[in-house]
Amino acid sequence: MEPSKLESHVKSRLEDIQASLLQRAISFRDGNIVDVNSYEELKAVIGQGKWARGPWSAGDNEELKVKEETGATIRCFPFEQPLGKKTCFMTGNPADEVAIFAKSY
């Protein structure tokens, strides 16, 4: 293969590989996040090795309880938050945002 064609071929293949890896990662992530509305649901989801996403307005003490009982901690508060009224699954208080809980390995 000519050097000028080789460069564009390699660049194109690397872009295809990157796009494929990104799509696999997104599919894995989306396939492992489960929406929860209660602490019992969170415990079941974490027990299955998945990630739990639920309304959260609790404090450090409740987060520590989740960690002690399930081994999971808050991984993030997604930038894209669902609209509408939400109720914290730990306290029953109104929640402005959802959090994603998971175990770290």
Report on this model:
- The chain is of the alpha+beta class and 105 residues long.
- Helix content is 48%, strand content 24%.
- It contains 3 helices and 6 strands; from the N terminus they run αβαβαββββ.
- It has helices spanning 3-32, 39-47, 60-70, and strands at 33-35, 51-56, 72-76, 86-87, 94-95, 97-103.
- The strands form 2 sheets. A 4-stranded mixed β-sheet has the order 1-2-6-3. A two-stranded antiparallel ribbon has the order 4-5.
- β4 and β5 form a beta hairpin.
- The longest helix has 30 residues, at 3-32.
- The protein is elongated.
Return Rg in Å. 20 Å
N-to-C CA distance: 45 Å
Strand arrangement in the largest pleated sheet: 1-2-6-3
SSE-based structural type: alpha+beta
Beta-strand residue fraction: 15-25%
Average pLDDT for all residues: 94
Strand segment count = 6
Categorize the overall geometry. elongated
- Low-confidence stretches are none
Notable features of this structure?
single chain; 105 residues; alpha+beta; four-stranded mixed β-sheet; two-stranded antiparallel sheet; 3 helices; 6 strands; elongated
